[in-house]
Amino acid sequence: MRVLALILLACCLPGSVTAGEVLAGVASNFAAPMQALARAFEARSGHRVSVALGSSGALYAQVRHGAPFAVLLSADAEIPERLEVEGLAVPGTRFTYARGRLALWSADPRRLIADGEALRSGDFLRLAIANPRHAPYGMAAREVLDALDIELGREQTLVQGESIAQAYQFVASGNAELGFVALSQVWLDGSLRSGSAWIVPETLHAPIEQQVVLLNAGAGQPAARDLLAFLAGDEAQAIIARYGYGRAP
User: Fold this and answer.
1) Where in the chain is the domain with CATH 3.40.190.10?
2) What is the average per-residue pLDDT within 129-158?
3) Closest Cα to residue 31, out of 170, 184, 196, 195?
4) How far apart are CA 155 and CA 100, in angstroms?
5) Do residues 24 and 227 touch, judged by C-beta distance below 8 A?
6) pLDDT score, position 97
7) CATH top class, domain 19-99+208-242
8) What are phi and psi of 203, to 5 degrees?
9) Does 65 score more than 70 pLDDT?
């Protein structure tokens, strides 16, 4: 009778029967909004979210080597599409959850002016970017430098981080005076959290269309599908917009 009572009690608890855990691979630029999204999703659904951060390229390599991610939130559209084509993701589940914005950022609140003149002036020794081979934001940064015809002088160094998170750390720690970062890393509710920044016009680089996809490991997990549905909804999109992302179409 005691066992039966415990079973009946468990069945009456909200979310106790259907609650699950989702392991999500998440691009580093999306770390801050993902924390807020996970809290909101867990409160709404009863599911739990565990997050593994990294560059999109590194996360892709981990999936190919058997990482048990249920969903992948990439910083681009190419990697989710590639996973779909390679049979590692569930067809028809891929969609854009955010449009990324790039910023040239300095920890010094007096260094930058609105039109990015700090780049043209050459008044810096180190410029940090994410590795363009692995990180879509690094690729966008490289496109901006090419579009503006910026070439570093002899005494200047381009410092590459393996992810946008590492590029941000180079600037935050003072190891680089300037760096191209994701706007979401320095922005909240319509204003900069610290330092100074030039929000790079989207005309200077290809669109940063960030897509999510359900991976094969999550195909049979209701919690993973619920997370995708949540990301597409108005509540999640409002949270994402707070961090400077463009709304998904």
Assistant:
1) 19-99+208-242, 101-204
2) 93
3) 184
4) 31
5) yes
6) 97
7) alpha beta
8) -70, -15
9) yes
